[in-house]
């Protein structure tokens, strides 16, 4: 059977203060020492990784992203995207918020990966690296280049190669952060 190299991690976020204030209840919990979560009373689901409500940004990075970053520097491609309903913690986890103003341990995936990548580059003088960054919003089938806002939406397209691969970005309807080295590592949120 062909290997499908996709791993899925689920992260449970803690209740926000306003949710506690409104007496909202937690409806999902992780099962200790397993990769399972239980929704409601008894509906169990298994994932490749489970991060409970007390998980840290550092843990998520170390377990899920660091191995990809290491592979990236060895020439493999990697894509990371956060998927979930509004308010579930995608931006928080991917770390695309106000990066400059957040505390070190609150930093999400993007700043940690960039830091580690450039650290790697600075330690490997004998290899030439080319790093490219793109930041694209995909919303209702329309693409917007957030680094070149004057570019017309109509000028941006998702293209396929002859094998039907969408290559640069996937056809996802979320805000999209692309960050590529050679080869490429993408973050989609
Ligand atoms: N693991 C976490 N620990 C603490 N706070 C969190 C965590 N995850 C998310 N939050 C907080 O929950 C709120 C919603 O998170 P966030 O904005 O990341 O959601 P989102 O999925 O990106 O939402 P949207 O789709 O609406 O953009 C934010 O105030 C964020 O700081």
From TrEMBL:
Where does the record place the Kinesin motor domain? 5-189
Give this protein's Gene Ontology molecular function annotations: ATP binding; microtubule binding; microtubule motor activity
Q: What is its main location?
A: cytoplasm
- Classification via SUPFAM superfamilies: P-loop containing nucleoside triphosphate hydrolases
One Pfam family matching this protein: Kinesin
Name the keywords, alphabetized: ATP-binding, Cytoplasm, Cytoskeleton, Motor protein, Nucleotide-binding
The root-end lineage is: Eukaryota, Metazoa, Chordata, Craniata, Vertebrata
Known InterPro entries for this protein? Kinesin-like_fam, Kinesin_motor_dom, Kinesin_motor_dom_sf, P-loop_NTPase
* Protein name listed in UniProt: Kinesin motor domain-containing protein
The record's similarity note reads: Belongs to the TRAFAC class myosin-kinesin ATPase superfamily. Kinesin family.
Any keyword Protein transport? Answer: no
Q: Which GO terms describe its cellular component?
A: microtubule associated complex
Organism encoding this protein:
Meleagris gallopavo (Wild turkey)
Biological process (GO) annotations held by this record are: microtubule-based movement; mitotic spindle organization; spindle elongation
**Where does it live in the cell?**
Cytoplasm, Cytoskeleton
Binding of ATP occurs at 84-91
Q: Does the keyword Ion transport apply?
A: no
